[in-house]
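#lab-general

N.A. 3:47 PM
ok so I finally got the sequence cleaned up, no stray characters, all 204 residues accounted for. can someone with queue access submit it? mine expired

B.Y. 3:52 PM
send it over

N.A. 3:53 PM
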Amino acid sequence: MHQTLCICALIPTLATRTRVSLLVHYREARKPTNTGLLAARCLVRSEVGIVGDLERPLRLPVVRDGEHGLLLYPDEDAVPISEYATTDRPIVVIVPDGNWRQAGKMRRRVPGLSDVQCVTLPLLSVTTYRLRAEPRSGGLATLEAIARALRILEPEGGAAIEAAMLAVFQIMVERTLWLRGTLGDGEVTGGIPEAALANDPRGT
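B.Y. 4:20 PM
back already:
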């Protein structure tokens, strides 16, 4: 995102009982429209591993003693994530971040993931991510998926955590659409920063 449209000051700091371990495909990590890394920046208890970059060895996700390890991916053996909503054990949610093909390969190729229980989200809403075409019905951006998972898994404050994450997500999406010329000045949540209006990065 252009410097004058930076959302860093708007990113919330959210403490959760649930740990989130994000596995980002190296090609996805380079994209300015990536949302998984934005989600990780929101969450105090998050970690990021880059998959497939030979120059950056992958830090494998670790399921600690006493934790439930869950892989947020709709594989054939997946169960609803709501089955773990009332567990007394802490949870680590491992989230593959890439396109469907890249994410699907991670379970087979990342050591240890094949043994982790896959979970799915309820089909309650459609994505509001308008920066890329969604190839699958019911598909969500990575940040949206993480936010919805935390709404279910966090016994206290889950709805507020989801709302805070989706709020900064919406601003990121709308500022990017404004930069592309798709939205007008008055259509962006919170408005356009004065620096961007004074020095229009669109070149118009």
